[in-house]
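Researcher: We're teaching a course module on how sequence relates to structure. For the next exercise, students receive a sequence and then see the predicted structure as tokens, so they can try to spot secondary structure elements on their own. Here is the exercise chain.
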Amino acid sequence: MMGKGKPSQKSASSFSLKGTFIAVMLLGVFILASWFGAYALFIAR
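Model: And here is the predicted structure for the students to work with:
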């Protein structure tokens, strides 16, 4: 009986972690883009 509850919990946490991973990747891309933008402004001056 305990085995029935675990797969649904695992898939729910897997979905949550997938969303978290996507959010972290988007944040990382934003930070990298801002750093490269600042670097480009520094080089252009």
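Model: If you want an answer key for the exercise: The CA atoms of residues 11 and 45 lie 51 Å apart. The chain has one helix and no strands.
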